[in-house]
Every structure is written in C-alpha cells, then in structure tokens.
From TrEMBL:
Keywords assigned by UniProt, alphabetized: Membrane, Transmembrane, Transmembrane helix
Transmembrane segments annotated in the record for this chain: 24-46, 58-78, 90-111, 117-138, 150-169, 175-194, 201-222, 228-247, 273-290
Organism superkingdom: Bacteria
Organism this protein belongs to: Gordonia jinhuaensis
Name of this chain's protein: Uncharacterized protein
Length: 503
C-alpha cells in the first residue's frame, strides 16, 4: 500500500524548487525592468558613452561598471541582513519620487550648463546613478536599497569625472588607468566575496596588488596599447581570484541564497511604482542632452606634422621652443605640446594703431588620438578659471582647413585674448594648433601659460553648476585680433603644406 507522502513526493519536490527560485525570479524580473527603464531614459547619454569608449582607450573601463556592480550586489545579497524587517511604503514613495525627479532635473537643466566640457565631466552620469537608486527604492524599498550602499558608492567612484580626477593625479598614463581598474576589481570582488570585513579587506588587497603587479609587468614588457593596459590587469586578477573563491565554496546555488537570507522582496506587487518609473523613463527619454562641440579635423596629404610648426614668411620666432610633455596625461601616451612665440617682421597699422610689431603664440598639440582633444578643451590647458569665453566663430584657412575663433576675457588679469584653433592630420597623427593673441601689444605682454589646471577648474564647474553658463560666457565678445590671426593662420597652413611638398 502506497503511503500519501510517497505519492505526493514529486509535487513536494517541485514545490520546494519553486520556493527556492521564486524570489530570484521576482528580483531578476524587477532588475531587468529597472535596467530597461534606465536605458530608455538615458538612451542618448549611453550613445555618447559608447562614442567615448570607442574613441578614448582610457575610457574603455566604462562597460565594467555594471559588472562591478553585480559583483558587489552578489556579496551583499548572500549576507544576512541586519536591519529590522520594517517597510514604510510612504517613505519609499517620497524618497524614490524625489530622487527620480531629481534625476530628471539634472538631465533637463544641469547637463546643458557643461556643454563645452561634456566629455570631461559627463554631467548626465550622476543623473543615471540617481535614476537607478530611485528605481530601486520604489521597486524594492528604501532599507533594501540602503543595504547595497557599498555597491552604489563603487558606481559613484567609477563615474567619468571622479575617475579622471584620480587618473590625472596619477599621471594620466595607461599604466595609471590599469592601476585604477585593478583597485576597482579589488573593491568589487572584496565586497562580493566577503563573509566578514576581514575577508573583504584581504580579498580586495590581494586582487588590487595582483592587478598592479600585472599592469607594471605589461608596461615593462613594452605593451603600449591603452585598452589592454586599462582592462587586462583588473579583469585577469579579479577573475582569477573570484573563480578561486567560488571553487572553494563549490559554486553558486539557490540554497546558498536561501541560507544567507535571499528572501522574497519586502515590497510586494509594486505595480503603481513600476508604472511611475516607466512614465518617468519615457519623459526623461525625450529630454535632449548637450551636443559636445567638435572641431573638424582636415586630412591634408603630405602635411609636415612635426611637433613644432615651420614659421611662415614675414614672421620670425622669438626665443626657444618650449616642450610640454605632461600633456600625455590628457591626450594619451606619446602626446606632446610645443610652444613657439613669433613676432612680425614689420608693423601693420591695421593690427596696432601705434604701429607696433605684434606677437602671436603658437601652441601645437600632437597626439595619436582625436577624441581626447574634445574631452579636454582649452580651459584644461591654461589657468583660465576666471575667464569668460565667447561662442566660436568659424574661419576658412584654405586647403580644406576650418578654424574656430574665440574671444576670452580674463577678469583676473584685465586682459582679452583671442584664440584661433584648428586640427589636421597626415597619416596616423593628429595635431591641434592654437594661435593666441592678447590685447596688450607691449613686448612683455603676458600670454596664458600652459599648466595642468584641471583641479583649479573644478571651481569653475561648481560656479557653472550654481550660476549657469553666465559665469563662463561672454555674450558681447570683441574679436579684436580676428583679422590678424586669420592672416597668420593662412600663412602657417601654406608654410606647412609647402614644407610637406618639399620633403
């Protein structure tokens, strides 16, 4: 005679499997919904990030952000929560609503204030971060979201602006990028694999140290590819140690989740919250973002792309050429900037009413990468954090070379500079040339001095954040030296073309 327990044992087993996997399926469904909503809301921002990853080797770490977040989330999930099982949906609605509206306002209002430094600051990235946190609060609750604070902190640290600040502080090289990525990997695996704080610290230090050693070995072996040095050390060290930890614990299982507190979400059936998130995602998706200003680069066959330019007829160089190697921290390994000061051979009454000979400064940046020239604008090379910039005007220099001219009012020195910029390439190297003039026509007139001024210009970004573009914009510019710079630019372009043809 068959006992009832034996007859129903398959049903009991199926129920147990369903009981184990049901919370995982619920959480996974909500996470997929949040991911889709975030991608819809910030589709145009992610398109810009893809362009950034494709064009800047040192930004190739960006796709690792969701991977690192998942690693942190895994470790937080399987650890037993210590908070009380209290959930107040009114508080969830208030906090989540405020954060998601804040994300919308950041994208709608603040992003446009950083148009000139969009790639450098990536102002929409904090909005993506806020939107994800807000969606988590609305779909899972405030307390469960706060449990993952170490994950949210890691994502914040990996956003482009804080990452670039640290990168430049470490020298800006691909080796420095590999060191930073290794630290990210140590952080993520340390949080993800830790059962205790001591375990997390040990795992994190081991992974970071292994990644740093690997990065140094690759650099010493002559690996010069920026993407390889940025990605390989952290990925290899993190994957190796992570797999070893999983092998010790015999992999992942639903029972491990159940044993460590992975229960049904405290928020049951958040249909209204999901509808609100979906509506806000669609509304946010219709908000445009800043179009980062780009300067077209002319392809000039046979162009002489030496690190310094040939001085055109009618002008002579004054003093030695100054070389600034630190620009490799901004524009990539092997990049260099040369500064030349040229003086007109004869006065021109149309350039100076006292018939004085005018001086022009030439700054030439030579690099293997084009996009970093857009990432770091003129404010990143000079100490102009108290200056106002006009909108650019275009100028045709011939031979397919188009230039942009800006007027810069330096309120600290009571001077007005005119800056004309153009780009060109021949072969695989790019050059950006800047001609600078100053309205003080004396021989000892001060010109903006190249300096690594990213830190000081953070104050400018804060002012723009609080006061808007009015703090940095010159609405009534006077292009005092436009004609002179266009004439000089024509002569310089012709001189380089002739030099290339004679080689």
């Amino acid at each position: 005679m068959t006992t009832p327990s034996t007859a129903t044992s398959p049903d009991v087993a199926a129920t147990e499997v369903l009981r184990q996997w049901h919370p995982i399926a619920v959480v996974a469904t909500r996470l997929v919904f949040l991911a889709v909503a975030t991608c819809v809301a910030f589709w145009n921002s992610f398109d810009q990030y893809a362009h950034l990853v494709a064009g800047d080797p040192l930004s190739s770490y960006l796709p690792l952000i969701p991977v690192a977040a998942l690693a942190c989330a895994y470790g937080t999930t399987i650890r037993k929560p210590k908070e009380l099982p209290i959930n107040d949906r009114q508080i969830d609605a208030i906090v989540g609503g405020v954060l998601i509206v804040g994300a919308f306002l950041v994208k709608a209002i603040l992003v446009g204030r950083f148009e000139d430094v969009y790639y450098l600051t990536s102002p929409s990235a904090p909005a993506v971060w806020l939107f994800a946190i807000a969606g988590s609060v609305l779909m899972f609750g405030l307390r469960p979201t706060a449990r993952y604070r170490w994950m949210w902190l890691l994502v914040l640290l990996m956003l482009p602006l804080p990452h670039r600040i640290v990168l430049i502080a470490l020298g800006g090289s691909a080796l420095a990028a590999g060191v930073i990525t290794s630290i990210y990997a140590g952080y993520a695996i340390g949080v993800g694999a830790a059962r205790t704080r001591r375990d997390g610290l040990v795992y994190g230090v081991v992974i970071a140290a292994a990644g740093v050693v690997l990065a140094v070995c690759m650099w010493a072996a002559g690996v010069s590819d920026g993407r390889a040095l940025t990605l390989a050390p952290g990925i290899i060290a993190g994957t190796a140690v992570g797999c070893w930890i999983l092998w010790r614990r015999r992999g992942l299982s639903a029972r491990e989740y159940r044993d460590h507190g992975f229960d049904d979400p405290v928020v049951r059936g958040p249909r209204k919250a999901a509808a609100f998130v979906a509506v806000m995602a669609v509304v946010t998706a219709f908000v445009g973002i800043a179009n980062p200003p780009t300067l077209p680069a002319a392809h000039v066959p046979g162009l002489a792309t030496g690190e310094s330019l040939r001085v055109p007829a009618g002008w002579r160089q004054v003093g030695a050429t100054h070389r600034y190697g630190w620009v490799s921290a901004l524009f990539g390994s092997g990049s260099v900037m040369q500064r030349q000061r040229i003086l007109a051979d004869v006065p021109n009454i149309s350039w100076d009413d006292k018939n004085r000979r005018r001086s022009v400064m030439i700054d030439t940046v030579t690099t293997d990468y084009l996009l970093p020239l857009d990432i770091y604008p003129v404010t990143s090379l000079y100490d102009l954090n108290k200056a106002r910039f006009s909108d650019p005007q275009s100028a045709d220099l011939g031979h397919g070379v188009d230039a942009q001219i800006r007027s810069v009012v330096d309120e600290a020195k009571f001077l007005t500079f005119t800056i004309m910029t153009w780009r060109w390439r021949s072969g695989d190297r790019w050059q950006e040339i800047r001609l600078l003039s100053v309205d003080n026509h004396e021989p000892d007139a001060p010109f903006p001095v190249p300096t690594l001024s990213i830190g000081r210009n953070l104050a400018l970004l804060v002012n723009a954040l609080v006061r808007g573009n009015s703090v940095t914009a010159d609405r009534r510019p006077l292009f005092k030296d436009r004609d002179m710079l266009v004439d000089v630019g024509h002569d310089i372009v012709d001189a380089q073309i002739q030099a290339g043809g004679s080689q």
